[in-house]
């Protein structure tokens, strides 16, 4: 039997798993430049705010279980940026290497085109070579490199901006 991946809009029942995925990224990686775990209320507020702004949060279900999520928001809170979105894709540590990130990114790109956005941005820690190469496969190109803008795990972090014209 083949493993079935399903992409769908996130639901409130996904929030505990999304929180687990977020917290793994916060505590163990430089994918998120935050230091502290998110609690249930934080994730509920984030979910509610994304819905109010009509911004998508999608999940990839692997054999029926939420295995990863992706979303995008307006790149910066100024009127002139309203056609540019910055996206995020996170996969649960137990489900990496199964094509879930690819499914999520492909779905986000498609959704952004349908929603008439002009360009997508990815902000990636410069040491995350896997994510940089992954984004290149989907047509993202490096457009900026910011040195020492983040600080986590007792070291300065560089940020790479990648962009895909839609």
UniProtKB/TrEMBL annotation:
Residues in N-acetyltransferase domain copies: 5-166
Keywords, in A-Z order: Acyltransferase, Transferase
Domain of life according to the entry: Bacteria
Pfam families named in the record: Acetyltransf_4
Gene Ontology terms, MF aspect: acyltransferase activity, transferring groups other than amino-acyl groups
InterPro entries the UniProt entry points to: Acyl_CoA_acyltransferase, GNAT_dom
UniProt KW Disulfide bond keyword: no
Gene3D superfamilies: 3.40.630.30
Protein name as it appears in the record: N-acetyltransferase
Organism: Arachidicoccus soli
